[in-house]
Amino acid sequence: MEKHLKSEGKFTYLEIGEGTPIIVLHGLMGGLSNFDGVTHFFPQHGYKVVIPELPLYTMSLLKTSVGNFAKFIKEFIDHKGYDEVILLGNSLGGHIALLATKLYPESIKALVITGSSGLYESAMGETYPKRGDYDYIKKKAENVFYDPKVATKEIVDEVYATVNDRNKLIKTLAIAKSAIRHNMAKDLPKMKTPTCIIWGKQDNVTPPRVAEEFHDLLPDSHLYWIDKCGHAAMMEHPDEFNAILLKWLQRKKF
User: Fold this and answer.
1) Cβ 32 vs Cβ 2: under 8 Å
2) CATH assignment of 2-252, given 1.20.1080.10, 3.40.50.1820, 3.30.70.100, 1.10.10.10?
3) What pLDDT, on the 0 to 100 scale, is given for residue 123?
4) How far apart are the C-alpha atoms of 27 and 2, rounded to whole Å?
5) What is the pLDDT of residues 230-243, one digit of tens each?
6) Residue 55 has pLDDT above 60, yes or no
7) Residue 189 φ/ψ, nearest 5 degrees
8) Which residues 6+ apart lie within 8 Å of 94 measured at CB?
9) Which pairing describes strands 20-25 and 6-8: parallel, antiparallel, or unpaired?
10) Which of 43, 95, 107, 185 is 20 to 30 A away from residue 23, measured at CA?
11) pLDDT grade, residue 124 (50/70/90)?
């Protein structure tokens, strides 16, 4: 996937396909490869998939916040000259997508969230930073998925390296605190953007009741469940995730 990355100014991103842009926002410990299923599927169905690298560890510490990441996405949309986009976010990426949709509704015609933060943040503060202990990190990474085997050695190694990098650890904690401050419960009822909520029935990080609360609070939302699935539905069940999302997009005529 690396060979497809484009760099333009402060933006580095993957772009595949032609058509309506689906901008994908990865999570705190997630990478672009988490969305390989989405990247391969949607360009075959008339959509352009665009995955920007979020500046989680490159923004200055004072600016490291969910609000500034949402602003970064708006700057990216403007840089690309898109009129309207579909935002798709997982975990922290879902939270950024929600806030960007609240702040810039004119640029976002549809929203898709899966395992999103924004309502329930206690897991973010306690799940990740514990430096040095590989077995602890391995267990936490496995807990993200219904099937622990999805947490490959490569994934565990990447998380372990992140929490043992002092600069990244400080930024991770700053992001977690910012996410807690940016609880969106009061904002959601005013957000009229059509929203597709896809959730793993066995999500241990953002439990199913969080999805139900999102569904209750968002005025124009549809909630879909994937069984035997944890926090990253698009990784664990890519075919089912893609089928649900495509059907919703087609029904909404996006």
Assistant:
1) no
2) 3.40.50.1820
3) 47
4) 18
5) 999 999 999 999 99
6) yes
7) -65, -20
8) 25, 27, 113, 114, 115, 116, 117, 118
9) unpaired
10) 185
11) very low
